[in-house]
């Protein structure tokens, strides 16, 4: 309120002027977004999957207890069982979940590259970059062969079939030498073996600089083998 002094010397309290604003603005809380039950369930399930990936990345499948995963996800152990029957049920979902993220990463990296050798090398490098930047992915992928064999077989089969479709298209368009089905499958397995051992080197590297060096050297050798062969 404003205080004015009249001629008589008495003070008179006046009401605030219409339209005036308080010096301290009122606090307005942003409206809370209420999630549906399905959305809450989806987010909780994904939080458990992400926590499972983190724990397996650091401790391996053998060291990934339900208590540890629930703690990492910020949920009670009882909540875990609302989404997964047991630890194995979660293990069977980790590689499909993380493997899909990896495949999307690779496809984004290679999308703008011309088909043929350049695209294959871009895919190879993108895979190694993913392993380098997501250091725990190696354990999720390759330990799954023992701890989540069904998921591992399904993941590798997806990769294999993707290569077969791509190479058949390249052969049909004359961009690649013709190969029989057995030869084609053997070639792809050899290429996947190169990826696996390069990934192992990256996983065991001493730091980021060494990982980058391994990625660059692996890509150089990969391109050399696929274009010119090993021997002069």
Automatic annotation (TrEMBL):
Keyword terms of this UniProt record: DNA-binding
Lineage: superkingdom: Bacteria
Biased composition (Polar residues): 9-23
Keyword DNA-binding among record annotations: yes
Name this protein carries in UniProt: TetR/AcrR family transcriptional regulator
Spans annotated as Disordered: 1-40
Pfam families tied to this protein: TetR_N
Species lineage: Bacteria, Pseudomonadati, Pseudomonadota, Alphaproteobacteria, Rhodobacterales
GO molecular function, one term: DNA binding
Transmembrane domains' residue ranges: none
Domain HTH tetR-type: 42-102
Regions recorded as binding DNA: 65-84
Cited InterPro entries: Homeodomain-like_sf, HTH-type_Tx_Regulator, HTH_TetR, Tet_transcr_reg_TetR-rel_C_sf
